[in-house]
Design a protein that fits this description.
5-stranded parallel β-sheet; Rossmann fold; about 15% strand
Protein backbone atom coordinates (compact mmCIF):
# COMPACT_ATOMS: atom_id res chain seq x y z
CA UNK A 1 0.00 0.00 0.00
CA UNK A 2 1.12 3.54 -0.75
CA UNK A 3 0.54 6.28 1.82
CA UNK A 4 -0.40 9.81 0.82
CA UNK A 5 -0.99 12.87 2.98
CA UNK A 6 -2.88 15.60 1.13
CA UNK A 7 -2.25 19.25 1.77
CA UNK A 8 -5.32 21.38 1.08
CA UNK A 9 -3.66 23.00 -1.95
CA UNK A 10 -3.71 19.64 -3.75
CA UNK A 11 -6.90 18.23 -2.23
CA UNK A 12 -8.89 21.25 -3.39
CA UNK A 13 -8.16 20.31 -7.02
CA UNK A 14 -10.50 17.35 -6.60
CA UNK A 15 -13.46 19.72 -6.15
CA UNK A 16 -12.51 22.65 -8.38
CA UNK A 17 -10.83 21.48 -11.59
CA UNK A 18 -7.50 23.11 -12.33
CA UNK A 19 -3.98 22.10 -13.27
CA UNK A 20 -3.18 18.91 -11.37
CA UNK A 21 -6.74 17.65 -10.96
CA UNK A 22 -6.15 14.50 -13.03
CA UNK A 23 -3.19 13.43 -10.88
CA UNK A 24 -5.13 14.11 -7.66
CA UNK A 25 -8.05 12.05 -8.94
CA UNK A 26 -5.68 9.23 -9.94
CA UNK A 27 -4.14 9.06 -6.45
CA UNK A 28 -7.47 9.26 -4.64
CA UNK A 29 -9.10 6.56 -6.76
CA UNK A 30 -6.15 4.14 -6.45
CA UNK A 31 -7.40 1.26 -4.31
CA UNK A 32 -3.81 0.55 -3.24
CA UNK A 33 -3.45 3.86 -1.44
CA UNK A 34 -3.98 4.94 2.14
CA UNK A 35 -5.13 8.55 2.17
CA UNK A 36 -4.67 11.04 4.99
CA UNK A 37 -5.73 14.63 5.57
CA UNK A 38 -5.58 16.82 8.63
CA UNK A 39 -8.70 18.09 10.33
CA UNK A 40 -7.44 21.55 9.28
CA UNK A 41 -8.04 20.58 5.66
CA UNK A 42 -11.75 20.17 6.29
CA UNK A 43 -12.23 23.80 7.20
CA UNK A 44 -9.79 24.97 4.52
CA UNK A 45 -11.58 23.07 1.74
CA UNK A 46 -15.01 24.30 2.83
CA UNK A 47 -13.72 27.88 3.17
CA UNK A 48 -12.12 27.78 -0.29
CA UNK A 49 -15.28 26.34 -1.85
CA UNK A 50 -17.30 29.09 -0.19
CA UNK A 51 -14.83 31.72 -1.43
CA UNK A 52 -15.05 30.66 -5.08
CA UNK A 53 -18.84 30.73 -4.80
CA UNK A 54 -19.50 33.79 -2.68
CA UNK A 55 -16.50 36.07 -3.26
CA UNK A 56 -14.95 35.09 -6.62
CA UNK A 57 -18.31 34.09 -8.14
CA UNK A 58 -16.69 31.25 -10.08
CA UNK A 59 -19.33 28.73 -9.00
CA UNK A 60 -23.02 28.85 -8.16
CA UNK A 61 -24.71 28.05 -4.87
CA UNK A 62 -25.83 24.66 -6.21
CA UNK A 63 -22.25 23.89 -7.33
CA UNK A 64 -20.98 24.86 -3.87
CA UNK A 65 -23.47 22.49 -2.22
CA UNK A 66 -22.56 19.70 -4.65
CA UNK A 67 -18.80 20.21 -4.18
CA UNK A 68 -19.14 20.24 -0.40
CA UNK A 69 -21.24 17.06 -0.48
CA UNK A 70 -18.74 15.37 -2.78
CA UNK A 71 -15.92 16.26 -0.38
CA UNK A 72 -17.65 14.54 2.55
CA UNK A 73 -18.67 11.62 0.33
CA UNK A 74 -15.04 11.15 -0.72
CA UNK A 75 -13.90 11.08 2.90
CA UNK A 76 -16.38 8.29 3.55
CA UNK A 77 -16.10 6.34 0.28
CA UNK A 78 -12.31 6.45 -0.02
CA UNK A 79 -11.85 5.93 3.71
CA UNK A 80 -9.70 9.02 4.05
CA UNK A 81 -8.17 9.12 7.50
CA UNK A 82 -8.52 12.48 9.24
CA UNK A 83 -5.56 13.24 11.49
CA UNK A 84 -6.35 15.59 14.35
CA UNK A 85 -4.08 18.52 15.13
CA UNK A 86 -2.46 18.13 18.54
CA UNK A 87 -0.34 20.33 20.77
CA UNK A 88 2.69 18.24 19.73
CA UNK A 89 2.00 19.21 16.11
CA UNK A 90 1.89 22.87 17.11
CA UNK A 91 5.26 22.58 18.83
CA UNK A 92 6.69 20.77 15.82
CA UNK A 93 5.27 23.44 13.50
CA UNK A 94 6.98 26.11 15.59
CA UNK A 95 10.26 24.25 15.15
CA UNK A 96 9.74 24.13 11.38
CA UNK A 97 9.06 27.89 11.30
CA UNK A 98 12.16 28.60 13.38
CA UNK A 99 14.28 26.72 10.81
CA UNK A 100 12.85 28.78 7.93
CA UNK A 101 9.85 31.01 7.41
CA UNK A 102 6.67 29.13 6.56
CA UNK A 103 3.03 30.13 6.45
CA UNK A 104 1.29 28.97 9.65
CA UNK A 105 -1.08 26.46 8.04
CA UNK A 106 1.74 25.05 5.89
CA UNK A 107 3.86 24.47 8.98
CA UNK A 108 0.96 22.73 10.73
CA UNK A 109 0.16 20.54 7.72
CA UNK A 110 3.81 19.56 7.37
CA UNK A 111 4.14 18.87 11.10
CA UNK A 112 1.13 16.57 10.94
CA UNK A 113 2.47 14.76 7.86
CA UNK A 114 5.89 14.32 9.46
CA UNK A 115 4.26 12.78 12.55
CA UNK A 116 2.68 9.91 10.63
CA UNK A 117 4.47 6.59 11.22
CA UNK A 118 5.12 5.65 7.60
CA UNK A 119 8.55 5.58 5.99
CA UNK A 120 6.95 5.64 2.53
CA UNK A 121 4.60 8.59 3.07
CA UNK A 122 4.25 11.09 0.23
CA UNK A 123 3.01 14.63 0.77
CA UNK A 124 0.71 15.63 -2.08
CA UNK A 125 0.93 19.39 -2.29
CA UNK A 126 0.56 22.07 -4.97
CA UNK A 127 2.69 24.61 -3.15
CA UNK A 128 6.17 24.44 -4.70
CA UNK A 129 7.88 25.93 -1.64
CA UNK A 130 6.13 23.59 0.80
CA UNK A 131 7.19 20.64 -1.38
CA UNK A 132 10.80 21.85 -1.23
CA UNK A 133 10.68 22.23 2.55
CA UNK A 134 9.11 18.76 2.91
CA UNK A 135 11.99 17.26 0.92
CA UNK A 136 14.53 19.04 3.13
CA UNK A 137 12.71 17.42 6.08
CA UNK A 138 13.19 14.07 4.30
CA UNK A 139 9.55 13.64 3.33
CA UNK A 140 8.75 12.70 -0.24
CA UNK A 141 6.62 15.37 -1.93
CA UNK A 142 4.55 15.20 -5.07
CA UNK A 143 3.18 18.29 -6.80
CA UNK A 144 0.22 17.18 -8.95
CA UNK A 145 0.65 20.23 -11.16
CA UNK A 146 3.84 18.65 -12.51
CA UNK A 147 1.79 15.79 -14.01
CA UNK A 148 -0.73 17.76 -16.08
Amino acid sequence: MKNFFFDTSALFKRYQPEKGTLKVNEIISDKNSNLFISNLSIIEVISNLKRIYEIDRITTKSQFILQKSQFYKDIRDYEITIVDLTSDHILSAEGLILKRYMKPFDSLQLAIALSLPFSDLTLVCSDRRLCEIARVEELEALNPENYS
